């Protein structure tokens, strides 16, 4: 899922379209001799003034302009890469909390403009401490990757998935009202439970607690997250009552 001009799930680190030039074309353009009339119109220069010295000066200026353009293109490309890195989780190929809150704010603005509610899902993975303690933190990282992959592969391209921190994830179910959002959130929880992590031939069950909040115009991102978080804790309390402390 990636965050684009419309909400989307980040499949990989946030990407932006970058114009690329093939190595062959770059080599050709670099090796081919430049002509003055390639770039500038010299018709206004009287022929008698177009001396070899003037031609050399013009060619030098053209080469300098080309060099500056290449440097600018490289700098812009690097800035886009750095922006993508700043929006991506340090461990998983999904957005981080910073990018998620920005997308949530944008979706709230969308709801305000078009009157289309969307549902926020707040996820907290169960038993991650036990997995880390029993199998090690590398196994815990694999468990996070496992959940992120399942979530990413089972939402629409218009939805957004992010790691909010630790073993917490957030999902924006775009243009999903209370009923649709609750049904999709429940199906995602069932999906995680039905697909255990395979670790060196051992099957490790995964489960999660979740809460949902359907936001509309006038909501603030932090308030929406807080309400979904509280709903998640209510769900976790219910699970503790059924299965014991997690």
Give a verbal description of the structure:
With about 250 residues, the protein is an alpha+beta fold. Helix 5 (about 130-135) packs across helix 6 (about 135-155). It is about 55% helix and about 15% strand. It starts with about 20 loop residues before the first helix and ends with a helix. The chain is built from eight helices and six strands.
Characteristics:
246 residues, alpha+beta, 4-stranded antiparallel sheet, two-stranded antiparallel ribbon, 8 helices, 54% helix, disordered N terminus
Multimeric status of the protein: single chain
The structural class is alpha+beta
Element string (H = helix, E = strand):
HHHHEHHEEHEEEH
Cα end-to-end separation: 30 Å
Helical run tally? 8
Number of strands: 6
Low-pLDDT segments? 1-31, 36-40
Strand order of the largest sheet: 2-3-1-6
Gross geometry: elongated
Q: How would you characterize the largest beta sheet? A: 4 strands, antiparallel
Radius of gyration: 27 Å
What's the arrangement of secondary structure elements?
Elements: H1 23-31, H2 36-39, H3 52-87, H4 97-114, E1 118-125, H5 128-135, H6 137-153, E2 160-165, E3 168-173, H7 178-194, E4 197-199, E5 202-204, E6 208-215, H8 221-243
Antiparallel strand pairs: 1-3, 1-6, 2-3, 4-5
Helix pairs in contact: 5-6
Brief summary of the model shown:
The chain is of the alpha+beta class and 246 residues long. 54% of the residues lie in helices and 14% in strands. Strands 2-3-1-6 form a 4-stranded antiparallel β-sheet, with helices on both faces. A two-stranded antiparallel sheet has the order 4-5.
């Amino acid at each position: 899922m990636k965050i684009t001009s419309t909400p989307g799930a980040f499949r990989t680190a946030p990407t932006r379209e970058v114009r690329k030039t093939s190595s062959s074309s770059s080599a050709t353009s670099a090796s081919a001799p430049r002509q003055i009339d390639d770039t500038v119109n010299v018709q206004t220069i009287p022929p008698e003034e177009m001396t070899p010295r003037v031609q050399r000066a013009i060619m030098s200026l053209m080469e300098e302009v080309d060099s500056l353009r290449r440097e600018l293109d490289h700098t812009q490309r690097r800035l886009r890469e750095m922006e993508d890195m700043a929006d991506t989780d340090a461990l998983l190929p999904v957005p981080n909390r910073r990018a998620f809150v920005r997308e949530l704010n944008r979706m709230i603005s969308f709801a305000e403009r078009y009157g289309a509610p969307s549902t926020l899902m707040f996820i907290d993975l169960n038993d991650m401490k036990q997995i880390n303690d029993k199998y090690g933190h590398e196994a815990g990282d694999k468990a996070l990757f496992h959940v992120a992959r399942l979530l990413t592969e089972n939402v629409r391209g218009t939805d957004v998935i992010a790691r909010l921190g630790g073993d917490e994830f957030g999902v924006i179910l775009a243009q999903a009202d209370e009923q649709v959002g609750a049904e999709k959130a429940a199906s995602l929880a069932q999906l995680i439970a039905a697909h255990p992590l395979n670790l060196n031939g051992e099957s490790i069950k995964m489960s999660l607690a979740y809460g949902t909040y359907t936001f509309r115009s006038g909501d603030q991102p932090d308030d929406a997250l807080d309400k979904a978080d509280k709903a998640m804790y209510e769900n976790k309390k219910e699970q503790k009552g059924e299965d014991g402390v997690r």
